[in-house]
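TICKET #2291
ISSUE: user wants both folds in one file
ATTACHMENT 1:
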Amino acid sequence: MNNPAKYLPRFLGATALVILIAVVLNFFVDPLQLFRPARLFAAMYSQDSRLQGAGLIRSQQFDTVFMGTSLGIHYRQSDIDRALGVRSLKLALPGSTSKEQKFVLDSALERRPRRILWQMDDWIFRDAPDVDKDIYLPVDLYRRNARGIASYLFSGAMARESLWILARSIPPLEPVVAKLTTGVLFKFPIANVDDINALHPRFDVAGFYNQKSTLAAFRRITAPVQSPHLAEGYDYDALVRRFENDAIGLISANPGIKFDIYFPPYSILQFVAMRDASPATLKIVYDFSAYAVPRLLQFPNVRLYDFRAAKEITHDFNNYGDVIHHSPSVDLKVLAMLAAGKYLVDRAAPTASLDRLKAQVEAYRVEGSEQ
């Protein structure tokens, strides 16, 4: 009779060999560029900004960090560089909280950038679990601790990515492998860092960002069944607590870093929706702004821009895909306004921009009136 036990050493040996090959492959190819910038193998990038950010911080050269939410995810680093005369690193995280943003910015600050460009809004300061409980943010990769390095090197999924990147780096195979590389099959399908989460040139911008979509979103969020969601995450005390810990804490700890902070140009309909369907939420937004703006301007290393009352953008619903998310053309307008110092909040009149927003929201009528 066969003795299964005699095959156990062979099985264990084969398993150890496969694991060793995966570790060696992941270390030398380093698909995330966590240990070194790509030189021997083609640099490839992931659309998963929470994962990719850990590698970008270590592999890229930059003097400016761009942080934001989904409102900043489609910016191109080359556009930021051209408009502002910087060398930027985009670390925007869709749906992120201030806890996540502060954690990632703390990691980026280890590389000693001179400037932080921060797309900030009230919603990021909602209460959220600590980053160590965040299943979507690979905190140990950012920390580069033993657990993070081990999970990276021993990952079979990363070994598959490494093998694919290795194959793509062989000139005769590159055209075929490039055609087969998609975001569905592989985590690292992007060959140019500037293309990370940027809209594809063939994306139907006009078909997605238009007045019809914006008004439909407005009707949807103000419908009785949906309107309670407008209040989600809006607790004034929680917003202030997180703001003080995450934003003010980071700024005060880095007096030598310039912080250019801007409030993004939500469409006017976001605030009108609150006005009509959740007025208590709108009051929290106003009260939080009245607190946060003067607080930020106490710091000499902060410049604050408030685009929420930029009527030429916020009242043109062809700029939006819903009541918040704006088109790539607005990305460029925002960068141009930052470069020109437009909508810069005056330290001597910190609530003036908020007063303009209040007046616009109060006066606005969705249908049948002149704006």
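ATTACHMENT 2:
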Amino acid sequence: MIRLLLWLLGGILLGGVVHLASVLALPRTASQDAYSRLSPITPVNAFAALPVPSPDSAMLPFMDPAFAVAVCRYDVTNAPVKVTSPVGQAYTSISFYTRFGIAYYAINDRAAGRRVIELDLMTAQQRNALPEDEEVTAADRLIVESPTPTGLVVLRVLSPEPGAMPLARGIVAAANCQPNPGS
């Protein structure tokens, strides 16, 4: 009887390990992840506005039709990227994702405390190569370190009512995501 229980316990543990390994490996093996779906419509190091989502088709999961959304596929291999966006009246957020969809940084208009959100996106090696400037403090320059050389920057601007959507789309259109070799 004890031998049967040990075999049963071993089978359950092995099944749990296999299940956990497959769940963790699945995002790296998926061929239609967000980065791949956005590649045909978004240029590298530039924001591209996404169409309004419908119940049948949405470019990204969990898209809300009350938000104007733009995506920048970044590549910081050769140079850092400067991300700037004016903020909306209701809510504005910028989220950073690795190539495989792992979120590693996000900021909203309230946390930025300014009328324009400005960020420098770079790798750890590029940040270490920056000269030390005693007059520039961390509050003056917000630097985000990317764990991977490529990924996504997602800008969301809330339109609190349908009539304010053109304003939200204008804010999305004014956002920039471009290489900044001077950083």
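RESOLUTION: both attachments delivered.
EXTRA DETAIL ON ATTACHMENT 2: The beta strands are 47-49, 67-75, 81-86, 92-98, 103-108, 116-122, 143-145, 150-158, 176-179.
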